[in-house]
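Consider this today:
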Amino acid sequence: MCLRYTFIIVILFLSCAIKPPKESGPFKTSDLVELIKLDPSFKLDIRYASTNNFVGKPVYSESRAFLQRPAAEELVKVNQELHSLGYGLLIFDGYRPWSVTKLFWNITHGKQRKFVADPRKGSRHNRGCAVDLSMFDLSTGKEIEMPGTYDEMSERSYPYYKGGTEQQRKMRDLLRKYMEGHHFSVFEYEWWHFDYKDWKSYGIQDIPFSEIK
């Protein structure tokens, strides 16, 4: 009998451990929109739908990117402004289901964890208010070189990293300038990660892309 109840308790614990954290609202109603439906000129490189990521396998079943509508509309403005300079936005990731955030936490350790969100608190990606991106050259379609590569877990990823070439730092800072001009702020450890100003107004979500209308 004792073993039976112990087994039940363990199952309940594991069940709770894989659920998003409970939050106190109220929160704004989620309105996730697909970025390329607002602006088809966004270029997508959704790494987590491929093997080209730090996990080494796909964690998304679909190569799509979403943001809460106000954030998405501001990102469209950034993209259009960069077009006048000959660049476009290259999107790596937007809304991220909470279960993926938990996976990232589970497979990273030590200093690597500064680059991933603690699932006990949730991620701004889980709220649909964070975007990972870079730029590409409109004339060639090639990704613009930055001091570090996307998802690189090293000091080269820091927004204030002083290494790399002068041109790489110039491009990184140009991206940041235009993003900050539209209510996004850069994450302290990742030049590519930007949070929309109203991220606290939205709750954590764990819905798959296929269920987003």
User: Anything to note?
Assistant: The chain is about 30% helix and 15% strand. The two ends are 48 Å apart (CA to CA).
